[in-house]
Amino acid sequence: MEMPDYCDYDGLGLAELVAKKAVTPLELAEAAIERIERHNPTLNAVVYKGYDDARKWAAGDLPDGPFKGVPFLIKDLPLPVAGWPRSMGSKFARGLVDAEDCGLTKRYRASGVVLVGKTNTPEYGITGTTESAALGPCRNPFNPNHIAGGSSGGAASAVAAGMVPLAHASDGLGSIRIPAACCGLVGLKVTRDRVPNLPDGFDYAFGNVVDHVVSRTVRDSAAMLDATGYAEPHSPYPAPPKDRPYLEEITRSPGKLRIAWSSETPSGRPIDPEIQAALERTAALLKGLGHEVIEKGMGIDYRALFASRGPAAAANFAAGMARLIDVVGHEPEPDELEPLTWAALKAGRRQTGPDVMRSLQETRMLNRKTLAFFEDVDVYLCPVLATPVPEIGFIDPVNLEPREVNRRQGRAFPFTPPFNFSGQPSVSLPLETDANGLPIGMMFSARYADEATLFRLAAQLEKEAPWKDRRPQVWG
User: What are residue 147's DSSP bridge partners?
Assistant: First the structure.
């Protein structure tokens, strides 16, 4: 194998080469390292380089998983890796080194991947852009003047640039789908508890936050979910079991689906005309494929839904920070947290027990309206972003006043949170580009636990409107 061809393969493709002994895992690790060293000065996607560990792992006896020998990156936020630092994008957490792999890290290792490093994330994953005082801004390979999205921006930037074929990502309010849309990738937010955080991880967001990957192909996403998405023993909330492997689902026809689409926003503000035109083209494509396509919004009270979640989300953040403070050993100094983080922490500490319980109760009741929409609809289509991919600095959590950060986030990323609240699967697919060559992600959401429908539809769209040969400025 000529190493310049490395970027042309997805993860399963590289694993097939390893199985055929056309290339060794160590050679793949070196190829990934070479590309990280080449492109990271421009993108700032990888913030910890575990090269020595990667070389040792690649040269050893790897598990016979579907991704045996494939280079892989872990997001520098939720998942401990033995002996590696975990900054969570914050100056306050500097110096934190994890003693052991967490359960999900072990599942990734069991899939056969070779961990080569950790990816950039905003402070505690709060924003939809990856720009922090501790780690600096992560840039988009399609145009480095623009954001890579967040909070899994480093993962998306690295995969889009060809450093690795897929990477770990997590999603609490859109943090897989937003960067996937910004960087032209497949980004699936799985059903809550589909990929468990395992007994050594706290359910720190009541099911809102899920872990999976960003990838360049649908089949890599399906294969990794097959490898990691199974119930842990004694789980109090296991996701409903799948009917068959997701790798098998992508070979099946989706049939004729009833697909609703809309550009309605929580604020009522119209979306950007380019995004609207791309959405309408996607609806027309679906109709041409034989699906029943109707223009119909979900009709939910977005403002009430978002407001209902506020107290519980704030208290949850304060509780997470309390655990971190116990580990660090002191309260944060004024310069150790960004303004938006300070605001979130102070708001969380103001919440009372009744505030939090009422918040959870109201969100639960409002989620019923989101879920009820899917009684006669198989899939809901909308954009991921309401605007073109913003430039670096437009949503700046370091220098902007917190209220303005949230206002700008609401303008750019209004669509993703409801499916975190309801726990439903939702995927961003890179079906369109704008006039400046930046990706436009389309979001498809399905009934609770119905990743199968999304995988079948995604595979159909990948075939009919392929994106695999679309290359960013920073590539290979």
Answer: 139
CA distance 80 to 78: 7
Quickly list DSSP for 1-61: --GGGGGGS-HHHHHHHHHTTSS-HHHHHHHHHHHHHHHHHHH--EEEE-HHHHHHHHHS-
Whether the predicted model's global pTM rises above the 0.85 cut: yes
The reported pLDDT for the residue numbered 150 is: 98
Burial of 419 (0-12, 13-18, 19+ CB in 10 A): buried
pLDDT score of 237 = 82
Residue 241, classed as helix, strand or coil, is: coil
pLDDT value at position 200?
66
Tell me the C-alpha distance between 129 and 114, whole Å. Answer: 27
Say how far apart CA 278 and CA 412 lie, in whole Å: 16
Distance CA 22, CA 110 (A): 22
Handedness of CA 322, 328, 334, 339 (dihedral sign): negative
Dig out the tokens for 249 from the structure.
């689902």
Which tens digits make up the pLDDT trace of 288-346?
A: 999 999 999 999 999 999 999 999 999 999 999 999 999 999 999 999 999 999 999 99
Catalytic positions are 75, 151, 175
Count, residues in the chain? 476
Q: Which residues of the chain have pLDDT under 50?
A: none
- Report the pLDDT value the prediction gives residue 235, as an integer from 0 to 100: 83
**CATH homologous superfamily, domain 3-302+362-464:** Amidase signature (AS) domain (3.90.1300.10)
